[in-house]
């Protein structure tokens, strides 16, 4: 799918496997870009399932993000999952937490540096929860609150 939209990727189209997002700043422009997208799909004999389509939306949920013309935000359900995540008691649980928070690392300045003490605990034989791990765990949770989770739409 990426290959047929190559020249339009990140200009007005995002593609993830079979999910396509067409975005624009005005409804008029959106209709033009949507028409172009539909023509390309038809030329390559791709078909849309109407029940999976939404057209002309002001904002959409896409890959765990809420995308609008002005900004991209972390989906509130993902933020809630981070905030409610219990203290990890194993490498697997910690890996799950870091996987979730890491997916949204672009929303947190210096994420890699902040998360480094927890990442170090993932090494074989290194999982030993301590006060530093606890502090970093809560800092990462707080870093992903609803108010810090918006970025300019161009970032996506």
TrEMBL record:
Residues 1-67 form the Reverse transcriptase domain. InterPro entries: DNA/RNA_pol_sf, Rev_trsase/Diguanyl_cyclase, RT_dom, Viral_Replic_Matur_Polypro. Pfam families: RVT_1. Gene3D superfamilies: 3.30.70.270. It comes from the Eukaryota. This is Uncharacterized mitochondrial protein AtMg00860-like.
